[in-house]
Amino acid sequence: MQPPTSHGRPERRRNRRGAKPSSGSRKPDYIHLKHPFQPQSIFSADEVNAIHNTALRVLQDLGIKILLPEAQKIFADAGAVLNDDNMVFIGRDIVEAALQTAPSSFRLRAINPAHEHDYADGTLLFMAGSGCPNNTDFERGRRPGCLRDFEETIKLAQSFDVIHLFGASAEPQDIPIQFRHYETMRTQLEFGDKPLHIYARGRGQVFDAFEMIRLGLNLSDDEFTGNVWLNTVINSNSPRMLDKPMAQGIMDFARAGQMTIITPFCLAGAMAPITIAGALTLQHAEALACITLAQLSRAGAPVSYGGFSSNVDMKSGSPAFGTPEHVKMQIGTGQLARHIGLPWRSATGTAANTPDMQAATETDMALWGTMMANATLTLHAAGWLEGGLSFGYEKFINDIEALQTLAELCLVTRANADEIGFDALADVQPGGHFFATRHTMDRYQTAFYEPVVADLNNIGTWEEAGSKTSAERATEIWKRILAEFVSPPTGEEAADRVQPFIRKRKSEGGAHPLE
Question: Are 230 and 198 in contact (CB under 8 A)?
Fold first, then answer.
């Protein structure tokens, strides 16, 4: 049987990694993953350089519309040219100087030091589905996101080591928008101990989140600003526009020393040119503009290059994911990130409406894209449905299986004499079997990955168990995880520390977006 987990769960329950109980002691490290394969390429070095230079030309000659006057002034002070239509024309010298100060790696801090990571080229991190307005599961159906759902999705993310960072998962729409950030941050502090996330929805909400982390983790100002405790995703408005909250978020996070994940969302054929190279050129230009704003706000600010580019269905205009074009754009994005020397984020996705074959295929193809591209962080890696409109509980569990399978590929495989096992080969006569060899008996309890949800039984046993699909089995798993969930040891104390601040800020009216 498995020993108790770090949260003190009893022996017969599934452990935090989702593996079934066994009599062995197999405990693979799914927390600290490194890419096992060399990054792939779709462009030559000359072609990557051409995309980069064209993106710089876009910023200098065509410009980018920036709606926040404070951000315009920062660019103007650095030598950019502005016109009366909020267009900012950024010279390549400004961008190149910013890239010189952007760090190539930094440490992501966490409440639990065991969940800290080096955000760097070669690191492999996963974040669950994020930004979903709805939740869905087989027991309760599809519904608008609520605080209960947000708490549940954070608990699910906390329960599997292969999910490395918290995201915005399910939007708790039952909480007024001016108070919502208090509950989402409190939930992460109370039920988790991994790196934290908050939306950039105006300076008021961002500063509230900063203060809650200081209070919840009992940090001094220097301890907070001198370390990376928090991330936010910055989406430019393709093509070539940066709105007020996103520009404000870049500046505020940079000045506080927290990570911005710069992510243009360029859909080829819609908000970007229809060709892969054209879409990536636009993505690269927008990312460079945002990275430059971060560095002009504070040189050395932690930033992640990113891209969530794919294509649209040209019949309906709907976003498509896991397509050949999506995978090619992931690989090309990796080449561009390495060209400028920055760690970067990618994403999976699916347009499927239920956790079926389409959902699995699209998500898994995109996951392989991130692996081939050597993405530092992969968003929406578990639970994402309907092109991001829903977080699916069964989809989350099925995706965990895929993520843990990829994580197993990161584990070191040996080929020493003991592993090669000549004595075992000699013990078994032609036509025999290896079940009873000493080589097998010494290893059988820990030799192979134990699935979370996959059923490896024959059809008779499967039928006796109810002929359930993987999604139906997943329902039982997420329900059990939530029923057995135990908060980390730091959770209650961190939540208690922030409650007086939450009460005070709510009595003052909270913080509305754009404030």
Answer: yes
Coil vs helix vs strand at 88: strand
Q: Is residue 78 part of a domain?
A: no
Distance set, CA 341 to CA 258, 465, 469 (Å): 19, 52, 44
Considering the domain architecture, whether residues 425 and 362 belong to the same structural domain is answered as no
Tell whether 417 and 378 lie within a shared domain: no
Question: What's the chain's average pLDDT?
Answer: 94
Q: pLDDT grade, residue 278 (50/70/90)?
A: very high
27 — pLDDT class (breaks 50, 70, 90): confident
Picking from 140, 58, 66, the residue whose alpha carbon sits closest to that of residue 95 is: 58
When divided into structural domains, the chain yields a total of 2
Whether residue 65 has pLDDT greater than 60? yes
Flag whether pLDDT at 354 surpasses 90. Answer: yes
Residue 317 and residue 433 share a domain:
no
> Is 1's pLDDT higher than 50?
no
* Residue 24 confidence (pLDDT): 55
CA distance 151 to 495: 13
Q: Using 50, 70 and 90 to split pLDDT, how confident is the model at 515?
A: confident
Picking from 133, 192, 127, the residue whose alpha carbon sits closest to that of residue 158 is 192
Judgement on whether residues 234 and 328 belong to the same structural domain of the protein: yes
DSSP letters, 416-442, are SHHHHTHHHHHHSPTT--STTSHHHHT
Helix (H) or strand (E) holding 384: strand 384-385
User: To the nearest 5 percent, what fractions of the chain are helix, strand and coil?
Assistant: 45, 15, 40
Angle at 469 between CA 465 and CA 472, to 5 degrees: 85
Nearest Cα to Cα of residue 186 among 168, 157, 209, 204: 209
Both 319 and 425 in one domain: the answer is no
Residues spanned by the domain of 319: 100-410+494-507
Q: 346 and 210, same structural domain?
A: yes
pLDDT at 14 over 60: no
Tokens of 207: 């500063």
Half-sphere exposure in the Cβ direction for 168 (13 Å, CA):
22
CA distance 374 to 509: 44
Task: Give the C-alpha separation, 30 to 54, whole Å.
Answer: 39
Token pair listed for 452: 């979370």
> pLDDT category, 8, cuts 50, 70, 90?
very low
Q: Rounded to whole angstroms, how far apart are CA atoms 177 and 510?
A: 9
Give me the DSSP letters along 288-302: HHHHHHHHHHSTT--
Instruction: Say how far apart CA 245 and CA 199 lie, in whole Å.
Output: 10
Per the listing, tokens 């760090």 go with 103
